[in-house]
Amino acid sequence: MSKTKYIFVTGGVLSSLGKGVASASIGNILESYGFSISIIKLDPYLNVDPGTMSPFQHGEVFVTDDGAETDLDLGHYERFTQASMSQKNNMTAGQIYHNVIQKERRGDYLGKTVQVIPHVTDEIKSAIMALDGDVDVVLVEIGGTVGDIEGLPFLEAIRQVGLEMDDSDVLYIHLTLVPHIATAGELKTKPTQHSVRELREIGIQPDILLCRAEYPIPQSIKKKIALFTNLKESDIVSATDAESIYEIPLSFKSEGLGNTILKKLKLEKLSDDSQVWQAWVDRARNSTEEVVISVVGKYIRLKDSYKSLFESLYHGGVANDVNVTFDLLESDDLLEWNLDEKFKDSHGILVPGGFGLRGIEGMIKAVEFARTRNVPFFGICLGMQTASIEFIRNVVGVKDAHSDEFSKSTPNKVFVKLKELVNIEEMGHNMRLGEFSCILKKDTLVYDIYKSEKIYERHRHRYEFNPKFENTLKENGMIISGKNPERDLVETIELPTHPWFLGCQFHPEFKSRPLSPHPLFVSFIAAAKKFKQSKK
Ligand code: GLN
Predict the structure, then answer these.
(1) Active-site residue 426, yes or no?
(2) Does 406 contact ligand 1 (Cβ within 6 A)?
(3) What is the pLDDT along the chain (536 residues), one digit of tens a residue?
(4) Which atom belonging to ligand 1 lies closest to the Cα atom of 463?
(5) How far out from the chain centre does Cα 314 lie?
(6) Same domain for 342 and 275
(7) Same structural domain for residues 488 and 466?
């Protein structure tokens, strides 16, 4: 393999322009040309990883096979490309400073004053180079927006990388906004001009601008932006709002972005294949039937909290040729509602993961409704825990059944802290994290879905099903259909008397990709589709 080339993606004007999806889309385009890629996200905040943050801060915490708790953009990277993410693909300023301070304490810099330049920037550069030689192209997305104080050492580091390498080995792509001002009926270029100027003051001249806009940017506007930013018109790419994020690689490609990148990096296409992706996008677009899934969670007011979950349900929908509509319900509010009324149009109920007591009783009520009304039910992690607690409370009759996480005083703890975490109060990276195997029992729903005896899924939780209650479940009709073989931990539960009732301790949403939708989501949506038909 020839030496690795680097593409740096920065953002300007404001956040939430979709830098993650843009980076993932560029990865997708390069793969369609036959190149191997990986994508690294550098986050300028000071947390060592996003694991200790509430989902309300930056959305979901995405978990990789190797158990890294990472930024949700890594989910996009995996869903848009064939790359597998690991700890090396996400680095925060907190981790960088942590490494630098550890080195200082060890005496590695002995005699020197430790400074942002060169010590912190060198540490950032070694994070950037972590995958050097492994793939043809590494994309590096810098979190935040140009002008953020925290982002400066990162921009300085990528400036240095550009200086140290050949021009054709490094590319700077800047994502900006070209707002449409309705009263003037015009697309405005000034914010983009300012953003590029800010980048140039730091010493980085972008090679390509991706301009987010509500409408395709006309040539005259591209010409203006090019003139003010020291670029060619062909380097200004219109990044128009798309109906589905999965259309973005295709629309970038039709804007000529793929060819521009290849030309600048002096790369020759090895192939050019977007047909399978295009076919999937077309299939998604042609689905007309609608299936409504109620998601009963505790972080509902921020949709990003469940990013991978919504994407997985969408993939499952496409596989069934249906559009999935989400009915988002804050679990706390459920206690005040008439559920027959609330779930009237619902074809499936899903309780996703979460931490802490708030919202638990509402989730339990939703589980009870799904169980007793035969509505397809999918419980993920906390959802599986609340499903077990509901069953033991309402079917077995142990009214004070709970999880140790939510009630220290109850004698009937259906979930208990993982043995090695008992007496550990430190929160950071202290969970059952990453990929673990699970053995599925034959003649169960879950076995039927996976069609395999041994599966591997990603985990992120502290509490486990209490073995004391295994027989209670079984004797009352719940099946424990999957277990972790090494530690005999309960992984999946199901109700054979119900049309589709499944709980899993792991997070299948981290492994679904458009072209290989996760079987649990495909099956759940199929059950919801069937339920809808039976209601007619
Ligand atoms: N709070 C639960 C636990 O730690 C569930 C975690 C989750 O849903 N990811 O076990």
Answers:
(1) no
(2) no
(3) 569 999 999 998 888 789 999 999 999 999 999 999 999 999 999 998 888 888 888 889 999 999 999 999 999 999 999 999 999 999 999 999 999 999 999 999 988 999 999 999 999 999 999 999 999 999 999 999 998 999 999 999 999 999 999 999 999 999 999 999 888 888 999 999 999 999 999 999 999 999 999 888 999 999 999 999 999 999 999 999 898 999 999 999 999 999 999 999 999 999 988 899 999 999 999 998 999 999 999 999 888 999 999 999 999 999 999 999 999 999 999 999 999 999 999 999 999 999 999 999 999 999 999 999 999 999 999 999 999 999 999 999 999 999 999 999 999 999 999 887 777 777 777 889 999 999 999 999 999 999 999 999 999 999 999 999 999 999 999 999 999 999 999 999 999 999 999 999 999 999 999 999 999 999 999 999 999 999 87
(4) 10
(5) 14
(6) no
(7) yes
Q: Determine the residue type at 501.
A: F
- Answer whether 401 contacts ligand 1 (Cβ < 6 A): no
Same domain, 528 and 441: yes
194 is catalytic: no
Same domain, residue pair 272 and 355: no
CA dihedral 354, 358, 362, 363 (to 10 degrees): 20
Pocket test for ligand 1, best of 295, 351, 355 (most atoms within 8 A of CB): 355
58, 311, 381, 494: the catalytic one is 381
| Enclosing domain of residue 90 | 5-170+241-279
| Cα–Cα distance list, 459 to 111, 281, 300, 313 (Å) | 44, 30, 21, 19
* Residue with CA at minimum distance from ligand 1 atom 7: 353
CATH number at residue 271: 3.40.50.300
Distance of CA 483 to the CA centre of its chain: 26
In the annotation, is 390 catalytic? no
417 and 464 belong to one structural domain = yes
Catalytic residue among 174, 315, 498, 507: 507
Q: Which residues, including other chains, have CB under 8 Å from residue 418's CB and lie 6 or more apart?
A: 431, 432, 462, 463, 464
Quickly tell me which residue has 């810099």 as its tokens.
109
Does residue 386 share a domain with residue 529? yes
Could you tell me how far CA 134 lies from the centroid of its own chain? 23
Instruction: Answer whether 381 contacts ligand 1 (Cβ < 6 A).
Output: yes
pTM: 0.95
Distance from C-alpha of 501 to C-alpha of 478, rounded to nearest angstrom: 10
**Domain stop point among 279, 307, 333:** 279
